Amino acid sequence: MSINGLPLHPLVVHAAVVFAPLAAVSAGLYALVTRWRWLLRTPTAVIAVLAALATQVAAMTGDSLKETLGIDTSAVENHEMWAGRLQAAVWVLAAVAVVAWWVMPHETPVEGAEDREARVPALVTPVVVLLPVLAVAVLVLVVFTGDAGARAVWG
Amino acid sequence: MTVMEFNGLPLHPLVVHTAVIFGPLAALTALAYAALPRWRDRLRWPMLAMVLLGSGAILAAYFTGTSFLNSRPELKALDSVQLHRSRALKLTWVTVGFAVVGVAAAWLHGRDGVVRLALNALLGAVAIGVLVLAALTGDAGARAVWG
């Protein structure tokens, strides 16, 4: 897969590198800082889905680039291994972020706006626990994946 | 000249990710601010934040790029690197203008008439400049690495 005669992977990767950490930080703050929940609710869900899509496309274009170049060094294998873990983690983060958007309660300081009640009270605690855990996992995995990828190109 | 590195890898290809995402996002936000009167009030502060973030990212990419080139002088001989470099220099100057006009537009947000018209026109023009030059610079850079 290429664009304008260049492989698509190094272009798409920019989006994954920026949106995955942003999604992780936003999800962590959303879960832990109750006061900001009204503000971070929609951005967290949107950025997490963007991050999952970007990572998915990065993984698919990465497979295609590997085939085109026909290289399978240990550096590339290492990058691929971390990328697979990141892909799983970021999709779970996106799913939980969307569930959070739907079920979580919040209080808003905006005049005229209404506070939100918990839609499914039983899910509030699991979401508050899961989001920071997934956020840390995504943050760590995106650093390892990117480092391994950069090392394969620049190391 | 000190080499800007992170964890044993050159810093430039890392910093470039933020420039590639936030540069164009900042330009699009500024265009929306300048061209959509109904969104103007709501976009004032997001526009300023994005302009500062995008400009900062592009300037950081420029300086780490210069440092990277100095650490590998043999790259200077390559035509592809020269093209990337000359486009990056233009992008950097347009970005400085973008930052100045973006801050001025947010500052003078309440003004009417000629001031508003002039700032909107200028902001739109430099935003388009950033968008075009960022695409050209990125393309030349990618071609230097992957072409």
How would you characterize this protein structure?
The complex is a heterodimer of chains A (155) and B (147). Chain A has 155 residues and is mainly alpha-helical. Chain A has helices at residues 9-32, 37-69, 74-103, 121-154; strands at residues 2-3, 6-7. Chain A is elongated. The mean pLDDT of chain A is 96. With 147 residues, chain B is mostly helical. Chain B is 81% helix and 3% strand. Chain B has 4 helices and 2 strands, in the order ββαααα. Chain B has helices spanning 12-35, 40-71, 79-107, 113-146; strands spanning 5-6, 9-10. In chain B, a hairpin with a 2-residue loop joins β1 and β2. The radius of gyration of chain B is 17 Å and the shape is elongated. Chain B starts with a strand and ends with a helix. At the A-B interface, β2, α1 and α4 of A face β2, α1 and α4 of B.
Concise account of the structure shown:
The complex is a heterodimer of chains A (155) and B (147). Chain A is mostly helical and 155 residues long.
Query: What's the SSE pattern of chain B?
Result: EEHHHH
Shape of chain A: elongated
Kindly report the average pLDDT value of chain B: 96
By helix and strand content of chain B, what is the structural category?
Answer: mainly alpha
For the record, give the distance between the C-alpha atoms at the N and C termini of chain A, rounded to a whole number: 24 Å
Largest sheet of chain A: 2 strands, antiparallel
- Please summarize the sheet with the most strands of chain B: 2 strands, antiparallel
Treating each run of at least 4 consecutive H or I residues as one helix, how many helices of chain A? 4
Number of strands of chain A: 2
What is the topology, as strand order, of the major beta sheet of chain B?
1-2
Structural class of chain A: mainly alpha
Radius of gyration of chain A: 18 Å
- Report the uncertain regions of chain A: none
